[in-house]
Write a structure and sequence with these properties.
10% strand; 84 residues; two-stranded antiparallel ribbon; alpha+beta; single chain; 30% helix; elongated
Length: 84
């Protein structure tokens, strides 16, 4: 039976994300298969750059009260199964 445990690979060591499974806490070697989950470390940087580009456009400077603007936009939508 295959069991799955969460860990992070740091160099040549696995560091447990959750509590170490009791049967793996000893010093006995255990055969494992490691699947690398897709990670996009640059995704946050790309998002920050996109937000900075939007800020440079000054396209929303006409909105003096963002909260009121958001409420106004939501007010116009009809909601399913709700009376107006």
């Amino acid at each position: 039976m295959l069991n799955t445990y969460k860990a992070v690979l740091q160099g040549n060591r696995l560091e447990w994300v959750e509590e170490i499974p009791e049967h793996l806490a000893g010093d006995q070697p255990v055969a494992v298969s490691v699947t690398i989950l897709e990670a996009h470390p640059s995704q946050g940087q790309r998002m920050a750059e996109a937000l900075e580009a939007l800020a440079r456009l000054n396209s929303l400077t006409h909105i003096s009260d963002p909260a009121a603007w958001e409420r106004e936009g939501r007010k116009d939508r009809s909601l399913i199964d709700r009376d107006s």
